[in-house]
Target: DUF3048 domain-containing protein
Amino acid sequence: MSLFQTLRARFKKLTKKKKILLLLLLGLVAIFSLAVGFYLGLNGNFGRILSPIGTLLENKPPEPRDFPNPINGVLYTKSEAAKWKDRLPLAVVIENHTDARPQSGLSKADAVYEVLAEGGITRFLALYLAEDSILGPVRSNRTYFLDWLSEYRAGYAHIGGSPEAQARVKEFNISDLDQFFLGAPTYTRIANRFAPHNVYTTTDKLRGAADSRGYRGPVKLESWLFKDEESSASARPKKFELTLKFRENAPYVVDWKYNREKNLYLRFNGGASHIDKETNSQLSAKTIIVQEVIITPDPSGHSRIRIKTVGSGPVRIFQDGKVISGKWKKTSRTGRTRFFDNKGAEIAFNRGQIWIEIIPAGSPVIIKKN
Model:
């Protein structure tokens, strides 16, 4: 016989007077519990609630989100941040050849640099600290990537590289995660894509390889300034688009189109939505930095290029459906690149994924509003 059936049978055996007394007693207990709960509520003790039998139960409030990601300012709870705060950041070279699309893992990056490699084709240097993903296709090292990843003290994932770039990895004491010496299982070639567009890895595999080589976090990161985004959608423009022509032909034209409701920019490459293969979601950014740099041909005669990463130059920051013009400054190879408005004040960015578009000085940036 169940407990309920037993209690029901015993209740039926009680006299009418005892039944009334029992029901009155239970009613008083319920009223007392409600009164105490109401009193605690008035005194701000919402986290402590009395059960009907007087036992105190803990009803913990949600954890505050007050731990910022040092790369892009996104706020995490203390327990969420505990998973990544001691990690070594990762910098991964991912290609953008048409045969490499859609890529894996770009939507999970904290920040992404896009820059010309050679032949008018761009590559990405994607930074990972807080999120995890499959990554690829991974491609080769270039010297200018070293100057940006050094700002994050990041482990560097790539597949070989130019002789000069490879020599600089050793000279600069980079935490090197080169596929040439790590091989499988850290890096694998997938069967449904042709070489050289088929080498993939994961954040977990790279962190395991880094740990085995003695490359460990945490590292001290010099953060940019961040701000809370504007909350009123009605104050935002209905339309805002920018176009970057890394190469005149369509496959390498980049468009960013502003989404007023979500206050972010959606990425299009070659006229098509740029999708992450792993999430099947369109790539987007909360802030887009368009940084103009001096680009010159490689004096060795190869099709590679050289980029002046140290110094200063024009910059435009796109966020909240607006553009801020100013200047970028980087005082040393490992120093943090900083961004200032035309009055000399450092620019604060919206919290969220940041894209840094590195373009040749004087290149047109086409803007369409409303």
Summary: Residues 3-58 form one domain.
